[in-house]
Amino acid sequence: MPDTDSTDDNSYFSEDSSTFGDRVAAARRAAGLKQEELAERLGVKLKTLRAWEDDVSEPRANRLHIMAGILNVSIVWLLTGSGEGVNDPWAEDFVPPMEEDQLLAECRAIRREAKRLHDHLLKLEGRLVKSRGQ
Question: Is the pTM value of this prediction over 0.90?
Answer without folding.
Answer: no
